[in-house]
């Protein structure tokens, strides 16, 4: 049975027989792709067990929209007697007020999308509070679930936190094609060529970029965080967004969104043929890809991802080092030396912790942020070690054999359009220089190649139906209109186009 025809393994298939073995104090991690029933497992397998035990389930979620959606489901299914849902952010706020109490009758704490602790740590320093509060609930069974659990599991190992891991294999057999792009203008060209009866959802790293695309493509919807500080949020049609979340589909041809829709939101529509992602964090990227839910074996999708060049990867490594090195210095030399050395330099990882000393505070390191920077740096170093490393890594991650680069396709198309305009024309010195500049062929020492023979080799290697005949001399003294020929006795190239076999 092939991967595309066999039934997908679900969380319930793997875990149902294990629930009864779990003991209070256990930490369970579940790494499973999107759409394989993580929430279904809690609602339909764990719920009846907890109800029979007369215990309860505290269920953490990380997105307001997901919280609203899940609250409705629990209420509709009559399961709110056992399952209580709370946002991580709400819990962190309660912790700051010292009023967060996990009641005794909660036997199970479920941390849904628990990659949240790491991926959000860059923007929310309080994820450290909710993480350690969860870890310290040692009388509970803590179940941590995510489609992107690798980094968090690595963090648990780094902190020597005992846990039991379960993993359900990812299945990317629904991917029709994997495409990368480098230039935003190239993506816009591609979007304009998508058939009108096909839909696309595009995730971007900023609300400004998402809104710009929405403004460019009129038959589209714009989505960003309703609670964020982005000025573009005033342009969001909240009613349309709510309708999309309820219907699990959208009427427009395009949705341009930030990562606010990165998890828990389902879009079930066979007309969604393209998922486009311009986001650097791999965990968030994978989550975004999972928003399009696959309906059946004929439901295929083209994935388009913005490439991260090796030059950009090296910059990201340097950015990580700017955060990591001061934190390491603090670990080794203490607060006084750190303040003396880095007093004018801000650091995301290091914060002021109130203590009883003469200055009233001490410098401390946010564990999750520190680990995230180290983890990302190691990832970037691994990827940059080979040419086209990022594209190769994503290709492997998404279980694909090949990928194409959109920029190459469009660049070649643009060149072909240009060549067609000069077929049969005499190319004198100026026109030759323009052609050479357009093609921009270079040798190993980055010197521009200028001979027509080299250009013919390029045409031949790239299967382009063109050929230059060089060393022609213009012997016409007078042009057809009777004017004197200004190019008399000058050499020229002649570009010919031949039929493809």
Give a brief outline of the structure:
The chain has 501 residues and is of the alpha/beta class. Helices cover 40% and strands 19% of the residues. A hairpin with a 6-residue loop joins β13 and β14.
How would you describe this structure in keywords?
six-stranded parallel β-sheet, alpha/beta, 17 helices, seven-stranded parallel β-sheet
Task: Write up what this structure looks like.
The chain has about 500 residues and is of the alpha/beta class. Strand 9, helix 10 and strand 10 form a beta-alpha-beta unit. It has a seven-stranded parallel beta sheet with strand order 9-10-8-11-12-7-15, with helices on both faces. A six-stranded parallel beta sheet has the order 3-2-4-5-1-6. It has a three-stranded antiparallel beta sheet with strand order 16-18-17. Residues about 1-5 have low confidence and may be disordered. Helix 4 crosses helix 6 and helix 12 (about 310-340) runs antiparallel to helix 13. The protein is elongated and about 100 Å long. Helix content is about 40%, strand content about 20%.
Mean of the pLDDT scores? 89
Number of strands: 18
Strand order of the largest sheet: 9-10-8-11-12-7-15
Which blocks of ≥5 consecutive residues have pLDDT under 50? 1-5
What is the 3D form? Answer: elongated
Q: Main sheet?
A: 7 strands, parallel
Spatial gap, N to C terminus: 39 Å
Number of helices: 17
User: What portion of residues belong to β-strands?
Assistant: 15-25%
Computed Rg:
29 Å
Q: Which range best describes the helical content: under 10%, 10-25%, 25-40%, 40-55%, 55-70% or over 70%?
A: 25-40%
